[in-house]
Each structure stands twice: as structure tokens, then as C-alpha cells.
Amino acid sequence: MNFTRLRYFHAVAKLQSFRRAADMLGISQPSLSRQIQILEHECNAELLKRIAKRIVLTPAGEMLFVRLGKLLEDMDDLHASMTSLESEQRRRLRLGAIQSTLDYPISRAISVFRGRYPKFVVSVRGTKSSDIIEGVSRGSLDVGIIATPVADPRILVEPIIREKYFVVLPSSHARALAKRLELSDLVSESLITFPRGFVIRDMMDLAMSEEGVIVPIIAEIESIEAIKSMVRNGLGISILPGSATLGPTSASGLCFIPVNSTRLVRDIVAARLSSQESNAPVSKFVDILKHIYREERK
User: Fold this and answer.
1) All domains in the chain, ordered by first residue
2) What's the Cα-to-Cα distance from 168 to each of 77, 162, 165, rounded to whole Å?
3) In angstroms, rounded to a whole number, what is the distance separating the alpha carbons of residues 258 and 264?
4) What is the pLDDT along the chain (298 residues), one digit of tens a residue?
5) pTM here?
6) 238-241 and 155-170 as β-strands: parallel, antiparallel, unpaired?
């Protein structure tokens, strides 16, 4: 049953006039009459009767008219909702970012991006790289800022920066003025780090295992800021990637010493579906993020 014909029928029944309905619908009266005849054939029932100059609904036509009213109202609401959703998505940047980038690089990039695209809403999900890659592959994220390889051939990967890891110490620590530290320098320390399964922790464990170094772990926390706060309060030290050391407030009460380890280096990349390659706002956000990292390295 053709939905357009149902709309035509509803208009004739509501206005009780083929002429007025044809004018409202923007079609000719003969064409409208023909569409109603086809609908009656499809329904296998007479829907309208012409009595003198009036249009009268048959019992079948009355039933169809009543039910169509609610159906057409729901369809109009659905169409409006879909249009609104499409418009909102066109003005929304859906971003996934690993936690270590959120506090400064990503928040700073959002600030600059919003200055150039003030009508955009930036929706950010901070989580593990594996979850971000899944979101990008499903199309629920426009771009992901991650630090792991991507196997999905549909996903394009764009390098942003290669960064080192740092030992995070309280400013009052005896090694606070060191230029560089070996992992073996940390064996007498207490370590605050992420739980297993996070890339930051897994890379650190691998590096220590290869060097035969054991540093006692006293706390496992899924929060960069919580880790830095505990270090700041003298509860232990940590090892974090460069992204987590950026920003004017990041260094308050802390010092960051580079770790001398070829294992503790990672590449930050932007991952997006190939269908998003020509998405100008996504490309602009990635360019802004690259610029922020370059500025911070100076």
C-alpha cells in the first residue's frame, strides 16, 4: 500500500473536496482522483462516495481515515526527529581519546576547535584504545586518539606525535633534579600505576621485565589525575607518558624525568574510518591537536 496515496486520501477526506485537496497537495485533480481509485483497488473497498457536491466516507473509508490520522502524526513526528538528529550529527564531533590525553592536549584542542566551529558540540569519550577502535569501526565515533596499532583495514591512521615516558616524582624528591633515570634507579621506590590491561601499564611491565627490574606497586588507579595527586602527596612515584605531563597545572608540586628505555616510547595517532577522510571538521581537529603537541615540545 503506497504511503503517498494514503496521504492523498487523508487530505481528500479531511477537506471533503478533491479540488481543495489537489490544490493543497500541489497535484492536478484528475491525478488525485486516479490515485484514490488505485488505493481503493488496493484496499478492495470503496472509500469515498460523491453525493451531490459532497464527499462522504464509506464505513471502510471512515475506519481508514481515523487510523491514518494517528499514523500520519507519528510519521511526521518521526521525520522531524530524524531530521533533527541528522542536523545535530552534522554539528557534533564525536571523539574518543585515551585518558592520558584528556586533561590537557584534548581539552586544549577542543577550546581552539570551538573557536573556529562555534556551532559544533564536541562529545568526548575517554577510555581504552581497544574500546575507541571499536567505536570508530562501528561509526559511533568520528575519530579516535589512540596509542596502539590498528588492524582494521577500513580505518585510516594519521600520526600525531611520538612521545617518551617520564618518571613522575614529588618536587621534593631526592632525584627531582636528575636529567634522566633508568628503570633500575626505581627499585627502592613505591609505584602508583594503572591496573593491568591498560596500555600504559602493559608497556611499563614489559620494559621492566626485559630489564629484570622489579618496582613494588602500592596502588593501581584508573585515573591520571588521581595518580599525580598521590605522587604529589608523597605516597609514591609513577611512570606516565608525555601527554600526561603537559599543561600549566600538570607540573604543580611534581617533576617529570625522562625514562631511559627504548620500550617506553609510543606513537599517538588519529584513527578514523576511510569514509571520514574528507570530513573537514575532523581533519581540522586533528591538525589542531598536532599543532598543540608541536607547541608543547618547543
Assistant:
1) 3-87 (1.10.10.10), 90-161+266-297 (3.40.190.10), 164-265 (3.40.190.10)
2) 55, 19, 9
3) 10
4) 677 888 888 888 888 888 888 888 888 888 888 888 888 888 888 888 888 778 888 888 888 888 887 787 777 766 655 555 454 445 889 999 998 898 889 999 999 999 888 888 899 988 788 899 999 999 999 999 999 888 888 999 999 999 999 999 999 999 999 999 999 999 999 999 999 888 889 999 999 999 999 999 999 998 888 999 999 999 999 999 999 888 765 678 899 999 999 999 999 999 999 888 888 889 999 999 999 998 887 6
5) 0.66
6) antiparallel
